[in-house]
Amino acid sequence: DTGVSQNPRHKITKRGQNVTFRCDPISEHNRLYWYRQTLGQGPEFLTYFQNEAQLEKSRLLSDRFSAERPKGSFSTLEIQRTEQGDSAMYLCASTLGQGFYTGELFFGEGSRLTVL
Amino acid sequence: AQKITQTQPGMFVQEKEAVTLDCTYDTSDQSYGLFWYKQPSSGEMIFLIYQGSYDEQNATEGRYSLNFQKARKSANLVISASQLGDSAMYFCAMREDLVDSGAGSYQLTFGKGTKLSVIP
Asked: Which of A43, A99, A109 sits opposite B42 (nearest CB)?
């Protein structure tokens, strides 16, 4: 399978613990995005990487959230000191593009976080 | 104000019939793009169709067509000949190009979605 891969698919944790999600984009894609989706809502943008550079962050991304994309390949999203409000599906997407892209985003199946 | 509004939380359609899912958007940009994605129960977002703001013809992709009415700021999705496998959540999304600021747009803004159920 050469699509966007995310793991773990499900994570249950206790409030206050740290969690990390990994995203492996489609290999030639230079752009990588993280979105968060809560129940009954559409995905909300969190952050964007072009190659290894993090170019944009949403104000939804509090200082407890950090994302990296070393070497412009896979990406990790870490949430420190989790809160119950962090419970959501975390979606990763990638695409190949320059400038104003018109191409589609390819999404992974998401990582579902439940904070108890 | 919401940038993407989907007013139909749920829709039912008979198999083999056509259905229209509504989407209105709000932007002051002249350059933008509109997308529709399908999200089945498995959770993966699947791209369906794209319409650029400067495209004069409505986009079509197989059984999907986008009814783009720029003056009304609407971008409705039409699914023809519905199939049972079309049952899913459908999201409308917009990319704003921020041309005046010189900034590329790196994010999509999604609506809340419409749950489509196809009845045999």
From this structure: A109
CA nearest neighbour of A38 among A81, A111, A87, A108: A87
Report the alpha-carbon angle A26-A27-A29, nearest 5: 70
Averaged confidence pLDDT in chain A = 91
Task: Return mean pLDDT, chain B.
Answer: 91
Query: Which residues of chain A have a CB within 8 Å of the CB of B44?
Result: 107-110
Residue B86: DSSP 8-state: G
- A39 to chain B: which residues are within 8 Å by CB? none
Rounded distance, CA B17 to CA B15, Å?
5
- Residues A45-100: tens digit of each pLDDT: 999 898 999 988 888 788 999 999 998 899 999 999 999 999 999 999 998 876 55
Q: Looking at beta carbons, which residues of chain B come within 8 Å of A53?
A: none
Cβ atoms within 10 Å of B117's Cβ, excluding its own = 13
Q: Nearest by CB to B104, from A93, A100, A104: name it.
A: A100
